[in-house]
Amino acid sequence: MADKLHFSLVSPARELMSGDVDMVVVPGTEGDFGVLAQHAPVIATLRPGFLTVHNGSEAPQKIFVYKGFAEVTPTSLSVLTEEAIPAEDLKANGELEKRLKDAQEDFSIAKTPEERHAAEEEIGHMQAIKAALAEV
Amino acid sequence: MASLKDLRNRIDSVKNTQKITKAMQMVAAAKLRRAQEAAEAARPYSERMEAVLTNLGAGMAGKPGAPELLAGNGKDDTHLLVVATGERGLCGGFNSSIARLARGHARGLIADGKTVKMIFVGRKGHDVLKREFGSHVIELIEFGDVRNIEFSHADGVGQKIIQLFEDGAFDVCTVFYSLFESVMTQVPTVQQIIPAKIEVQEGAAASAEVYDYEPDETEILNMLLPRNVSIQIFKAMLENAASEQGARTTAMDNATRNAGEMIDKLTITYNRSRQAQITTELIEIIAGAEAL
Q1: At B77, is the secondary structure helix, strand, or coil?
Q2: Which sequence spans correspond to the domains of chain B?
Q3: Among A44, A78, A80, beta carbon nearest to B214
Q4: End-to-end Cα spacing for chain A
Q5: What is the pLDDT of residues B234-292, one digit of tens each?
Q6: Burial of A46 (0-12, 13-18, 19+ CB in 10 A)
Q7: CA distance B227 to chain A (A)
Q8: What is the CATH code for B4-22+253-291?
Q9: Which residues 180-239 in chain B show a CB within 8 A of chain A?
Q10: Where does the pLDDT of residue B50 fall: very low under 50, low under 70, confident under 90, or very high at 90 and above?
Q11: Taking the CB of the first residue and of the last residue of chain B, which one, N or C, has fewer CB atoms within 10 A?
Q12: Are B36 and A8 in contact (CB under 8 A)?
């Protein structure tokens, strides 16, 4: 695995991360996918979840992303997201519990089936993330 | 002829003014650097976004079923003008040049029989234009107490605009802001954001990467386009912030220099009239002595 992948994580305000890595696992809307160098070009939307960055023998780094999209070319991966929080920070600041509560509140006051569905989805995401976070 | 005391007071007051303008200039220069960095740091995101949208848009343009944010809703009757200006004055022609551009645009549209609605981001533009276009103003969004512009501020504005668009309140949306070129030059700019203007260059489509889409193109576009509106507003606000500080730095630098010139001139006048007074007194004494 000689080839490295150029990975950049960009938020509207600034470039959060940029560098060459071995592999990144991206939480796509239609399922997680791993990106290595020489990946076929893809544009995919993200669901709330963890980006996992693998690089050499370092421990994989997990970063929470909330919506956004990923652009994959054979040599690079750019993830554009509005929010990105390293997993350790997310665990520490209790942001997740707040969002889960918000989502549950949304669900209880939802009037239309669409709203109800959206809130349900959000709760699902947040619970999945909570479960994943417990393992970190 | 002003008395010596008057002149002295005048010189002191100009000196005080100079101190203030000097301080403002230094503060603006320091803020400028930060604002400029913020504007530059935001560029990668909007560039990527643009690249992806161009790529997607080239494939979708002209096809039926293209999202309304991209293709427009087929009408051109009601225009929403988003005028982004600063919250403070004393920055040279910054606010007024944006306001002038927006005013010209609005007058043109009204003359063509279109309906014009306005949203102001920043107080100054509203102050200038409310007299003429008061009845067209939908909302004034102030960020007076915001020190650093964050994406969430722009996103709030963006979502309001999209909500209005979905409610059919307007057909075309344009943003007015000032593009930061350098400390000396800021260019007032008009940018249409709804429907999104995508420049399709001839032959560019062929060379562009052929992407797989996951989920399909329409869904990605539906997600990206509303975000693009917020991003463009955010970009406008950041460019504005940098432009405002740039304009203020230049304006205050000029003001300091003018005050300096004024002080020099007043000092010369002061010295001349002081000497004239001494001469007069001497002549009086000599004349008095001779008379004896």
Answers
A1: coil
A2: 4-22+253-291, 32-250
A3: A44
A4: 27
A5: 989 999 999 999 999 999 999 999 999 999 999 999 999 999 999 999 999 999 999 98
A6: buried
A7: 9
A8: 1.10.287.80
A9: 209-215, 219-220, 223-224, 227, 230-231, 234
A10: confident
A11: C
A12: no
Q: Least CA distance to A13: which residue of chain B? A: B42
Which CATH number goes with the domain that contains A82?
2.60.15.10
Pair A52, A100 in one domain: no
Please give the residue of chain A at the shortest CA–CA distance from B41: A14
- In chain B the beta strands, taken as DSSP E runs, fall at 78-84, 115-121, 137-141, 172-180, 186-194, 212-214
Q: Are B94 and B183 in contact (CB under 8 A)?
A: no
The structure tokens listed for A75 are 């040599």
Q: Two tokens at A54?
A: 């693998």
Q: How far apart are CA B136 and CA B125, in angstroms?
A: 14
Token reading at B83: 């005028």
Average pLDDT over residues A30-36: 89
B91 is catalytic: yes
Q: What 3 state SS string does chain A have?
A: CCCCEEEEEECCCCEEEEEEECEEEEEECCEEEEECCCCCCEEEEECCEEEEEECCCCCCEEEEECCEEEEECCCEEEEEECCEEEHHHHHHHCHHHHHHHHHHHHHHHCCCHHHHHHHHHHHHHHHHHHHHHHHC
User: B residues 19-38 near A, CB within 8 Å?
Assistant: 38
Query: Residue B103 is encoded by which pair of tokens?
Result: 């005013």
Q: Are residues A16 and A64 in the same domain?
A: yes
Kindly state whether A114 is in contact with chain B, defined as any CB-CB distance less than 8 angstroms. Answer: no
Q: How many domains does chain A have?
A: 2
Flag if A13 and B209 touch (Cβ within 8 Å).
Answer: no
Residue of A nearest to B219 (CA): A45
Nearest Cα of chain B lies from the Cα of A8 at a distance, in angstroms, of 10
Nearest by Cα to A48 from A29, A24, A74:
A29
Alpha-carbon span B250 to B100, nearest angstrom: 20
CA distances from B89 to B17, B93, B124, B131, B133 (A): 16, 9, 7, 18, 20
The 3-state DSSP class for residue B74 equals coil
Residue-wise pLDDT for A47-77, tens only, equals 888 899 998 888 888 888 888 889 898 888 9
